[in-house]
Amino acid sequence: MSERVVKPVGRGFLFLDSHPAGCARVVRDMAAEASSRPADKRRTALVIGSSSGYGLATTIAGLARFGIDGIGVCFEKAATARRTATAGWYRTAETAALAEELGRSWTFVNADAFADTTKDEVLDLVAAKLGKLDHLIYSVAAPRRTDPRTGETYQSVLKAIGAPHSTKSLTFEDGAPVLQEAVPIEVASDDEIAQTVRVMGGEDWTRWVTALQDRDLLAPGFNTVALTYIGSELTGPLYRQGSIGAAKADLEQTALKLAADGVTAMTSVNGAAVTQSSSAIPGIGLYVSILHNVTALQTPVQQSIELWNQLTGETPLDLDTEGRIRLDRWELSDEVQTAVRANWEAATQDNLADLADAEWFLAEVRRLYGFAVPDVDYEAETEVDVEWPTGA
Ligand SMILES: NC(=O)c1ccc[n+]([C@@H]2O[C@H](COP(=O)([O-])OP(=O)(O)OC[C@H]3O[C@@H](n4cnc5c(N)ncnc54)[C@H](O)[C@@H]3O)[C@@H](O)[C@H]2O)c1
Questions:
Q1: 287 is annotated as an active-site residue
Q2: Would you tell me which of 141, 169, 258, 387 could form a disulfide with 180, CB atoms 3.0–4.6 Å apart?
Q3: pTM
Q4: Tell me: domain 10-146+191-275+297-329+366-383, CATH 3.50.50.60, correct?
């Protein structure tokens, strides 16, 4: 047991500690947003990337609103003598407590999703706890991947393809927003693009589906989605037309290949959200701050409810011509994008406060670590040694 006062320490958008009570509160707020209702039948899901961002929202919406039983896989760090556990560790503990209160079966596995040993462990759990699976949600965002079959480690990069670019970006100095006019974006080499595809493309998703098929763990009517992003032309050079975009294109091709092999597999294009992965991308902080100034962002929970509505057949699939589920129409409408572009082009240090909600963005980043959460007493001691949930 180790109780202490936890303060936000770190640099830029990276905090070294997370606040357990704040993270727990974030989970409860998400569950309240998902608002429960009676389930019509038992459904089962495996969520890869369940502790954070869209994977967490899908997990909470699934369990709290749709009464889904499941298994979540994520990669988090326990508390040490010096540091708290990661935010995803605390959020997972609270999600498990929520599942128990709601009488649902959820087990969380803290392990590298890319490893074959993790797949073996998780598939044993699927067989033992869930029987067969109705849904697989693939929502991993990782900087590197070791292929267990070759031992090779690949690193993903955030770089442009073709010509170098620069982007406007947002940073904070002593908590005050600072507009950077031209942050350079390097050009990725062919090898860097290939490595990014090995990390964030569809190879590992396919391995999960194949492993489940090999063990005969797919229920009739099974479907699977992997999350993808398109985003604005403003972030295009770094995101969709960049190295990460090449990986997303591979993921989307993977869905088509799996579908050709008879698996109901799709990608889900979600809208921009402030997550640990997205806030690290140059330009995205400014883009999302302007987006928020222009329109209300659909939250990850709202989008996840919509995703489950479609995956459970409650509403028809809303697919584009490339077979992708579109949850980002609110972001990419002409009206919103025209207004965002106008603000983006006009933004200077002097008018930043009028055109971009930078303070909101920073508060959202803090919330990712359990800080800046209303009704949490940040002066009080809080237990940082929280056990990994054993699961029901
Ligand atoms: N954030 C956005 O704006 C946005 C928009 C659309 C789509 N997406 C997509 O959603 C997906 C998830 O992104 P996010 O922004 O929610 O990220 P995130 O950083 O909030 O969450 C990533 C999750 O992956 C898990 N993870 C990372 N490495 C792992 C590993 N080796 N093994 C097991 N789990 C691992 C983490 O524990 C965490 O649960 C990505 O495919 C991303 O491209 C994000």
A1: no
A2: 169
A3: 0.97
A4: no
